[in-house]
Backbone:
């Protein structure tokens, strides 16, 4: 097992999201900004499992991407989440290390945080990488 492609996957996802026409004007971060306002995307935590077999080394990454919005209601956040899902599900991203075999949408969870003032949608994608 190797976590060797973790940074490469994050970089490719970040580049894909920041160049998506449907996400123009939506900031993408890998850390919560000091004064978050509006709607933004946070490339976040991941869980990695060994996915090697007799043909070679590999890893399965469960990567979380969050949409956070202080807008009224969930509509703005859900619109951005749908654009992320459309952009990443099945995408053929090129990694600086390893080869992305597949990238699939796995699940999402929408909820209110900060006493109901902020909306958060966590999307989880499964990436299978050969190393």
Residues:
């Amino acid at each position: 097992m190797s976590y060797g492609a973790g940074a490469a996957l994050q970089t490719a996802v970040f580049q894909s999201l920041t160049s998506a026409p449907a996400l123009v004007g939506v900031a993408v971060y890998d850390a919560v900004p000091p004064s978050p306002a509006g709607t933004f995307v946070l490339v976040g935590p991941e869980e990695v499992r060994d996915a090697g077999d007799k043909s070679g080394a590999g890893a399965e990454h469960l990567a979380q991407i969050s949409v956070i919005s202080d807008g009224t209601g969930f509509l703005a956040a859900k619109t951005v989440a749908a654009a992320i899902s459309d952009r990443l599900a099945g995408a053929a991203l090129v990694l600086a290390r390893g080869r992305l075999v597949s990238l699939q949408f796995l699940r999402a969870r929408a909820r209110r945080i900060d006493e109901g003032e902020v909306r958060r949608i966590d999307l989880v994608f499964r990436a299978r990488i050969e190393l």
